[in-house]
Amino acid sequence: MSNVAGKAYGMNVVTPMPVWKTWINTLLFMVARCQPQQLAGLLGLSIIHFARWVMIRRQDWPDLGQGKPKLARDYMLFVSNFNGTWDQYIDAFSDGIPNGLDLFWYSSMQYPGSIPITAFKNYIRANQVDTDYYYNATPGAAQRDIKAALRFWTVLDGLAAKHATMSPAEFAEEYRKALVAVQKDLPSPGYAPVASNDTQNADINRDALVKRAWT
């Protein structure tokens, strides 16, 4: 699948907005930037590598040789990278910040709301644009794996600095303390296993329906 690389999944969703609502969304985004605590539910989702909403006004669409497009509406672009399955991500998003999602997407046409989840998933799938090529520099490592490696590296650097000034007995004691501090960060991350047989079977069962919807 072109938008999956190891543990990571790349999502792009493009939704049309009435032009007169764009300024309202601009104001909401400004408030969200000034009060990041309002996004605590989003920031607390450790499966997310990156998430961004961008408004593209109709006059700002690029001309890449196809001619300047003449559009009737502005658009919202949502871009995110995460680890886990598509279903897990949408479930976590809807459960973590349902009110935030509704604020960010309220102006998008035919947006059903983040709850109930089935309608929300159908809306995301209908407006998702799959990537042609998705590169991930660390396909075997998710966000938490990289943070664990950085914690380990910091402790290792500290041990290296102490080694030159300590006796063998003192260093052995520091080593044991460091090992206890980073013991949860030592396992090899590897590639993500099947998150759920139910999810995998559901993907297989709806494959024909999805293909019909996109052909």
Provide key terms for this protein.
215 residues, alpha+beta, Alpha-Beta Plaits, 2 domains
Low-confidence stretches: 193-199
Structural shape:
elongated
Number of strands: 4
The helix-and-strand class reads: alpha+beta
Q: How would you write the strand order of the largest sheet?
A: 1-2-4-3
Percent of residues in helical segments? 40-55%
Looking at the overall shape, the CATH architecture of the largest domain is 2-Layer Sandwich
Radius of gyration: 22 Å
Q: Helical segment tally?
A: 9
- How many domains comprise the coordinates? 2
Strand portion, in percent? 5-15%
At the first level of CATH, the class of the largest domain is Alpha Beta
Distance between the termini: 17 Å
Spell out the helices and strands N to C.
EEHHEEHHHHHHH
- Profile the largest sheet: 4 strands, antiparallel
- Under CATH, the topology of the largest domain can be stated as Alpha-Beta Plaits
Summarize model confidence as the mean pLDDT: 79
Folded structure, characterized:
The protein is an alpha+beta fold and 215 residues long. It has two domains: 4-127, Alpha-Beta Plaits, CATH 3.30.70; 143-185. It contains nine helices and four strands, in the order ββααββααααααα. The chain has helices at 22-34, 40-43, 86-96, 98-105, 117-127, 143-163, 168-182, 197-205, 207-213; strands spanning 4-5, 8-17, 48-56, 74-83. It has a four-stranded antiparallel sheet, covered by helices on one side. Helix 6 (143-163) runs antiparallel to helix 7. The radius of gyration is 22 Å and the shape is elongated. Mean pLDDT is 79; it is low at 193-199.
